[in-house]
Amino acid sequence: MATQQYIPKILVVDDEMRIREGCRDVLTQEGFEVASAESGQKGLDMIAREHFDIILLDLMMPEMSGLEVLPEVKASHPDTVVIVITGYATVEHSIEAMKSGAFDFIPKPFSPEQLKVVVSKAIEHTRALQDIAKEKSRMRGLINRLSDGVMATDDQLRVVLGNPAFLKMINHKGGAVIGHPAESFIKQPELLNMVHEALAMPQDTFRELIEEIRRDGEGDAEEMVLNAHSVPFRNRTGTNIGTITVLHDITALKKIDQMKSDFVSMVSHEIRSPMNSVLMQLKVMMDGLAGDVSEKQMEILDRASKKINSLVEMASELLDLAKIESGLITLEKEAVQFNALLEDQRQFHLDGAAAKNISISFEKAPHLPPVSANRRNMEEVVSNLITNAIKYSPEGAAIDLVVNLENDYLCIVVKDTGLGMAPDDLERIFDRFYRVKNGQTRYITGTGLGLPIVKKIVQAHHGTIQVESTPGRGSTFRVYIPHMTE
Ligand code: ADP
User: Fold this and answer.
1) Which of 31, 408, 433, 443 is surrounded by the fewest CB atoms within 10 Å?
2) Quick check: CB of 429 below 6 Å from ligand 1?
3) Among 317, 319, 311, 315, which Cα is nearest to 261's?
């Protein structure tokens, strides 16, 4: 297919016929399409009818001066390049015209050569502008075709871009949103909060805000689970000049996850009862109620019941995990006094620690306000961390418990002087069933489900968990729970 070469269109607006015709001759010879107008108003009329790439505009015209024409051209055709033709000694006017958006100026009288140079510079400029415009529209086309939802706002949270996927995901049925405040059409308060928070993010921090958002079903739109990411959009000096939000539809993943959790809870629930009855029968035998048991038999029965016990423990932990994942556990929150909770946990674990000659210290934090949380969940978190600290520490180690307030978060620290972990392991200990395997941990039993449970509980409270560790020196787990949680 032959492509037609694009011929740039030039308009000459000048009241002097000599100039109009001179320009027309020179520029037509150069291969441009040239039109002319003898007054500012006529020029504007022509511009209203068709688009010109370049306008040569005389500043000194009777009735309407070029300085009056210029802003109108810029308002209706921002990508038209304007070259002003200036009379003798009107430098101030040329400067004024450049300030109002003229690209260049050419003083009268000018030679055909001078005209050609100015126009060819302007042509280069229009090509660059066209390239940018093409690039922009290609980008826009790409964003519009994305299956992820994308919205960009300015610093007043007015929408500058909202692709069709975004509008569909938030179930927007109204008209165009560009230029409208995000508040006026986003109905999900969590999503709006994120966008606000992204815009308010201080200059010295950069965080991607991530939130799971449920969009209620409405009309023909089904319920949807969305993964929303929001970040501030910054200029070169680091000032927030807007926000960018991306939505990813994770409804199908959530459904599969739910099915998996349901399956796991069903299996673990069904396994627990027969195993408990096996345990009871083993106990009957071990207690001698089914006849005499030799020392060797006792040893075998003891080993068997230990194995069954760890299976029961795993089934219970899998059940806990499934319950937390389905959001059942964290529903009931109350004002929890963490000084008391940590002291109770310390007392509870003292015997287990003493068996390995391990100390557990805890000093109450002064003026600690109660924090809204699920008490049983929080006991489980602290208990799990202390149990691990004891399990993965050698004889004579020390465990320190600390609680304090850090900004809007309650921070619980469980620190041990135990085995510690290598960086590679640290990345994986919150994965299900992951257990560090080395000579020292070989004989320590466990399921690899404790830390995943801890993490799930903390996340369900909108908190985070961090760990620092040095092999051979010990580990420090830090749990942060927002203390404003409802
Ligand atoms: P489990 O203790 O049942 O194996 P967890 O999920 O609680 O499962 O822990 C996962 C792994 O992380 C453990 O197997 C252990 O290797 C490591 N770990 C956890 N806590 C500590 C700790 N305080 N010190 C050293 N290693 C630890």
Assistant:
1) 443
2) yes
3) 319
Query: How confident is the model over 420-429, as pLDDT tens digits?
Result: 999 999 989 9
Give, using CA atoms, the residue closest to atom 16 of ligand 1. Answer: 436
Mean pLDDT across the chain: 90
How far does residue 448's CA lie from ligand 1's centre (Å)? Answer: 7
Backbone angles phi, psi at 64, to 5 degrees: -120, 115
Per-position b or e across 327-336, b if 16+ CB within 10 A of its CB = eebbeebeeb
Task: Give the tokens for residue 319.
Answer: 């059940």
Indicate whether 8 pLDDT > 50.
yes
- Enter the tokens of residue 267: 């299996």
Distance CA 383, CA 323 (A): 18
- What whole-number distance in Å separates Cα of residue 419 and Cα of residue 428? 16
Give backbone dihedrals phi and psi of 13, rounded to 5 degrees, phi first: -110, 105
Query: pLDDT per residue over 264-276, tens digit each?
Result: 888 888 888 889 9
Give pLDDT tens digits for 307-331.
Answer: 999 888 888 888 888 877 776 555 5
- b/e sequence 286-313, b meaning 16+ C-beta within 10 Å: beeeeeebeeeeeeebeeebeeeeebbe
